[in-house]
Amino acid sequence: MKNYKYLLIIAILMVSGCSIDRLEPDPLSFFSPENTLIDKAGMDGLIVTLNSSLREEKGQNDGNLLLGEWNYSDFTVNGAPPGDVLHNFELQMTPNSTEDNECIVYWNLAFRSIKNANVIISRAPEIELTASELNEVMAKALFHRSYWYYRLVHQFGDVPFVAEEVTSPKLDFYTHSREAVLQRITKDMEFAVQYLPVDVQPGDVNQAAGSFLLTKCYLSIREFDKAIAEASKVINDGKYALMTERFGTTEPEFLTFSFLDSNDFDVLWDLHQKNNKSLAENTEKILVSQNQFNTIGSQNTAKSRDTSPTWWQARDPNGTRACTDLDYGKGLNMIQQLGRGVGRMVPSQYFRDMRWEDPDDLRYSHNNWFGMERYVYNDPSSAYYGQPFDPASVTDIRQWYPIAYNKLIYIDESGNNQADRSTSDEYIYRLAELYLLRAEAYWWKGDIPRATADVNVVRARAQASLVDAVDLDYIFDERARELYFESPRKTELTRVAYIMASLNRDGYTLENMTTNNWFYDRVMRRNHFYVEEILQGANIYRMLPYHVYWPIKEVHIRENSLGHLNQTPGYPGSETNILPLTDTEQDKPDGMD
Predict the structure, then answer these.
(1) How would residue 438 be classed by pLDDT, with cut points 50, 70 and 90?
(2) Distance in Å from the first CA to the final CA of the chain
(3) Could you tell me which residues come within 8 angstroms of residue 566 by beta carbon, excluding any fewer than 6 positions away?
(4) Domains in the chain, start-ordered, CATH in brackets?
(5) pLDDT, averaged across the chain
(6) pLDDT of amino acid 220
(7) pTM: predicted TM-score of the whole model, two decimal places
(8) Cα dist. 589→12, 161, 558, 583 in Å?
């Protein structure tokens, strides 16, 4: 798999920041496309690489990519204090900045995957395949290309659409409009869902995953009836159902943890255990990335490390450090039970307070949620050993906050006594989100009863109280409760902002989206760090309306010397933008060779 991943490099500007000339493939290489993509086995190998790319977003060994989707939005911030950590978007998210590392990594990951998908799309019709094999291979490639373009347009806005394999150095890309790209990937997914297989091996793309992505595409282009119909195909087909009874296994280490109650595990605990996500009996899973211990291509990920607080640095009322990260297997054994976090995902006060809305919600049960009241000083030499943290003494925001324990804490199989990394399969799509997407589609149509009913399906499984009526804010609050650090938060919020502006709803317009948009207003309603511009380390937390989209890095624009990549409006360089192309079949403006 790694051979496909790293040696099938085709020249395209957006793959990385280095010069495009150095990315031209050597046609004499044994692993060149000419030698490997000559039959179905070669195509299947590249599809494996595409499937593996889905894992990369949640499979980083340090600095989980999904942090950017959550910290750059409405419910969390990066609590790390160094000056090179993004807090102040106005100063630190620019075309030339490095603090917003997720921007360039997402861009490179997306276009690398698009490049690989285009190799299949361009070459598959030329090799010997049956009609059904060709349709399936094309459907999978179109899924992956559409998946990443869906992400790109809601992360960066207008981007270049690359429709075919690039076989020689290319320096003349032009930007396409968001709407053109969304319309194109919707059309592509309408084809793909017809030919994606119903049953696949874990990690591969099936028909339900295609319908899931197509539902999001239909929402993006305001085809709400079609979004409802596509989501309903999966919800109603009988193959998928929310998990409501316990299943799978719990790793034995958890059963020994003093912070957990062995009698209080429930279906939501089981749902998020790494060994249960890909089980055949898990009827909620739709698409799950594969990352298992001691398997080829797997790697430890920093999910626990990134999302958990630096509780081990907390100080007592005397100002003395009263916690330690050296109690693995002894004393309170907090380092194994909580991991050695670095505080890169601090939840807002609003998100913390949602816990108190319903005491019966299983998502906040004893084992699934580790509340702030449960942290204790664990250094045996401290006079406060075993006592709860003193709120007045823990002054660093990244040292003390609640965590979704069932989702964020994993057992480290490698024997690391700091328990900060682990392998795990991860959900890309599961049925609960599809109910919430359909609820949103109903809301856009003004059908509040049906929107509320779909939200209540998800809440009922969590044993939360049912609600009488929902609005858009409530649907996205529910998405946070159910999909915390699971779905791409910023992408989905920006999608709604784009819909609002496209429909001229609530005073929002496409023309003024960089100065007035639903995304920014939502952040200001939910994230007190940005509202109060709290100082952490060298910078305050600050976000402005134009941060609804991320900047395209100057290195990509500069290297595209024979074309024109527009800069995201609001950022330096956008004053030279030209009209984006509105036809994805067109790769340059009229009148240009």
Answers:
(1) very high
(2) 39
(3) 158, 175, 552, 574, 577, 578, 580
(4) 1-195+506-593 (1.25.40.390)
(5) 92
(6) 99
(7) 0.93
(8) 19, 13, 19, 10
